[in-house]
């Protein structure tokens, strides 16, 4: 008899217990999956081990909460990165590793660590915004074992263990190397889709995930740097008439590059950019949050990712060059102060 992808719970390892990692870990735990969560610090691992994850928000359609406004959930295991670096008997036995760190955390040493966490028949699913990370990871993990996820779910971290699900969205998942998928590849994707759906997420599979990644990249490349430079919420961008031509230039330059690279962009993407500004009007973009917390932003994977592709193809992105220099200068101010 054939296997059914909905029939069995998954054993999942989530690396990165930030906003997205804690929210998805809590939701999968609530749906009965075996979740191992990997934090950066021992302090956070201890906090979650002793008091659990606190999930709030988004409860109206959550699979875990019923009528509660917040729930506490205990993942099956929690480890700090350093603990897993030591030989502590925690095998790389998850069928699926969900990577939920920011692009800025993906150094060669970290990519090698992630490679060591994937079992021989396991899969890595990368949730990062932007581009460039798969090149670093594929030095340690075969491309055939990597999937990309693009999500418009919103999550906000309030403390080491409290996360708020700030907005329900959609998630697309697809293979990094979509040509000639095996029966095993198809089975895995359908199982992951079914299990995430059963944890309350709206998930679609895509055999054009690169195009989805680029559509989200273009949205981020228009919104994020401008909010970071101007220190305004997403909604303010469409309230300031003088910004409109600048946003449009960023958008058109990036569309021209995608076209040159043969990557399909949704015909209504400009309307989507404006719609994201309207729907998330009061939100601070992730880049603005990073700037305000003096953390290194994902600039190099968003605007910088476009600039790398442009250089490789001899394409010019003057407006993105200018915006890159502005955000990078903001980062350099505090790098100089801290050195
Ligand atoms: N938040 C959201 O709503 C969405 C986020 N995304 C994307 O998802 C990715 C994650 O975003 P988000 O969750 O917001 O980011 P966060 O910064 O909230 O979370 C990233 C987490 O990774 C942890 N981390 C860093 N290095 C390591 C390490 N060596 N081992 C284990 N953990 C590590 C960080 O730990 P520490 O805090 O201790 O430094 C942090 O908790 C980003 O690429 C983002 O663009 C996409 C869509 C929506
Ligand atoms: C879509 C947007 C701009 C929402 O804030 C985002 O993805 C981000 O902040 O990184």
From TrEMBL:
Q: What is this protein called?
A: 2-dehydropantoate 2-reductase
The UniProt entry's GO biological process terms, in alphabetical order, are:
pantothenate biosynthetic process
Keywords assigned by UniProt?
Membrane, NADP, Oxidoreductase, Pantothenate biosynthesis, Transmembrane, Transmembrane helix
Q: Which family does it belong to?
A: Belongs to the ketopantoate reductase family.
Q: What EC designation does it have? A: 1.1.1.169
Q: Which pathway features in its UniProt record?
A: Cofactor biosynthesis; (R)-pantothenate biosynthesis; (R)-pantoate from 3-methyl-2-oxobutanoate: step 2/2
Q: Where is the signal peptide?
A: none
Q: Which reaction does it catalyse?
A: (R)-pantoate + NADP(+) = 2-dehydropantoate + NADPH + H(+)
Cell inner membrane among keywords? no
Segments traversing the membrane? 12-32
- Please state every residue range assigned to the domain named Ketopantoate reductase N-terminal: 14-177
According to the UniProt entry, its GO molecular function terms are: 2-dehydropantoate 2-reductase activity; NADP binding
The role this protein plays is: Catalyzes the NADPH-dependent reduction of ketopantoate into pantoic acid.
Q: Which GO terms describe its cellular component?
A: cytoplasm
Ketopantoate reductase C-terminal domain ranges (all copies): 209-331
Top EC group: oxidoreductase
Claim: tRNA-binding is one of the keywords in the record: no
